[in-house]
């Protein structure tokens, strides 16, 4: 089994370092060329003037590049697909500019490797996944994660840092180790900007109980002023800790914790997040009884619409540039619900 990678410098940091080195080299070349071409000193611009002009041109170029980079964070249409992963979980988030985030990768027992077929359709064979988040290391959340890392251009991988004993976990770690992906173990309070997506890490903190479910990576992801909560299999105890920490968990939608289990999606979590709709990912006739009746009732009590992959298949939420959204389902009722 491979050892987990230490965090590497980001692509952005590499680009900034390259720019600085390139700038220094160019300025030195201009300076020495000016020294050797002394006969040009009587030209319209002095050597110092030329260097100053060149510096201003570089500044203009860098400012334009920075502006372009900032513009990537502006509002743009985004598609969130809660993939039909049977008794597993996988959420694919894609912005119009191509920025792609995948949260979890379904269940390993799927012999048809449906997750790979879905990614081929929506990402493209061998396409780029900017961020792959494994909320925790249970096999129904990291299934075929190794194939995803091998088959696609994965830029960064998040894991909770808790070891597991399964073969699929070992394969995922080996795949990460063999890839060029950045490996990160995010912690409570961190904020990340991935393209147009603002990601707030709500859990886990450094006080881990080495419990896979409760150490799930819990995030709030915002784009176009629309936010969603993704809590893996975190229990009501973790939801309570997050709420009591004072973190802003208000969200337009939530992915119900632990596949809609009664042990998650507490009343406190629902009241604090105030979602306009909720989604659960679970397999038909599963042996776990997901979703739980109590969890469903807690949402219905607040008149919150619920969508599930059992009845609806893949659920697609399109977030428009103006901050409104629409919902479409692969099967069952397709209300094409609009929200603001």
Overview of this structure, please?
The chain has 340 residues and is of the alpha/beta class. The protein has helices at 11-36, 47-71, 114-122, 139-142, 145-151, 167-178, 236-244, 267-273, 293-300, 309-312, and strands at 78-82, 91-95, 100-103, 128-129, 131-133, 153-154, 156-158, 182-184, 191-194, 197-203, 218-223, 226-230, 253-255, 277-280, 306-308, 315-319, 325-329, 337-339. The strands form 3 sheets. A 9-stranded mixed sheet has the order 8-7-5-3-2-1-16-17-18, with no helix packed on it. Helix 1 (11-36) runs antiparallel to helix 2 (47-71) and helix 5 runs parallel beside helix 6. The longest helix has 26 residues, at 11-36. The model is unreliable at 1-14 (pLDDT under 50).
**Sequence of strands across the biggest β-sheet:** 8-7-5-3-2-1-16-17-18
Helical stretch count? 10
Strand content: 15-25%
> What integer is the average pLDDT?
85
**Largest sheet properties:** 9 strands, mixed
Residue share in helix: 25-40%
Structural class: alpha/beta
Radius of gyration: 24 Å
Features:
single chain, 340 residues, alpha/beta, nine-stranded mixed sheet, seven-stranded mixed sheet, 18 strands, 33% helix
Q: In summary, what is this structure?
A:
The protein contains ten helices and 18 strands.
List the helices and strands and how they pair.
Blueprint: H1 11-36, H2 47-71, E1 78-82, E2 91-95, E3 100-103, H3 114-122, E4 128-129, E5 131-133, H4 139-142, H5 145-151, E6 153-154, E7 156-158, H6 167-178, E8 182-184, E9 191-194, E10 197-203, E11 218-223, E12 226-230, H7 236-244, E13 253-255, H8 267-273, E14 277-280, H9 293-300, E15 306-308, H10 309-312, E16 315-319, E17 325-329, E18 337-339
Parallel strand pairs: 3-5, 4-6, 5-7, 7-8, 12-13, 13-14, 14-15
Antiparallel strand pairs: 1-2, 1-16, 2-3, 9-10, 10-11, 11-12, 16-17, 17-18
Helix pairs in contact: 1-2, 5-6
């Amino acid at each position: 089994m491979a050892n987990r990678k230490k965090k590497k410098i980001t692509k952005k940091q590499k680009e900034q370092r390259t720019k600085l080195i390139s700038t220094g080299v160019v300025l030195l070349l201009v300076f020495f060329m000016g020294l050797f071409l002394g006969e040009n000193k009587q030209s319209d611009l002095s050597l110092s003037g030329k260097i100053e002009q060149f510096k201003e041109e570089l500044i203009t170029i860098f400012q334009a590049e920075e502006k372009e980079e900032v513009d990537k964070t502006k509002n743009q249409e985004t598609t969130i697909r809660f993939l039909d992963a049977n008794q597993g979980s996988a959420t694919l988030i894609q912005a119009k500019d191509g920025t792609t985030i995948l949260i979890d990768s379904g269940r390993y027992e799927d012999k048809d490797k449906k997750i790979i077929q879905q990614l081929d359709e929506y990402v493209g064979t061998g396409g780029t996944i900017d961020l792959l988040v494994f909320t925790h290391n249970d096999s129904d959340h990291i299934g075929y994660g190794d194939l995803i890392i091998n088959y696609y251009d994965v830029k960064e991988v998040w894991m909770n840092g808790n070891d597991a004993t399964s073969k699929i976990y070992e394969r995922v770690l080996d795949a990460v180790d063999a890839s060029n992906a950045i490996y990160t173990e995010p912690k409570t309070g961190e904020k990340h900007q991935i393209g147009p997506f603002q990601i707030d890490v709500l859990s886990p903190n450094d006080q881990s109980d080495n419990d896979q479910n409760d150490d799930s990576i819990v995030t709030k992801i915002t784009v176009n002023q629309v936010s969603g909560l993704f809590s893996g299999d975190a229990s009501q105890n973790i939801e309570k800790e997050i709420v009591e920490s004072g973190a802003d968990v208000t969200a337009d939608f939530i992915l119900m914790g632990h596949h809609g289990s009664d042990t998650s999606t507490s009343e406190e979590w629902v009241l604090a997040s105030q979602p306009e709709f909720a989604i659960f990912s679970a397999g038909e006739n599963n042996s776990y009884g997901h979703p739980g009746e109590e969890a469903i009732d807690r949402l219905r009590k607040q008149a919150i619409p619920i969508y599930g992959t059992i009845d609806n298949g893949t659920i697609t939420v399109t977030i428009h540039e103006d901050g409104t959204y629409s919902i479409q389902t692969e099967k069952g009722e397709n209300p094409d619900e609009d929200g603001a």
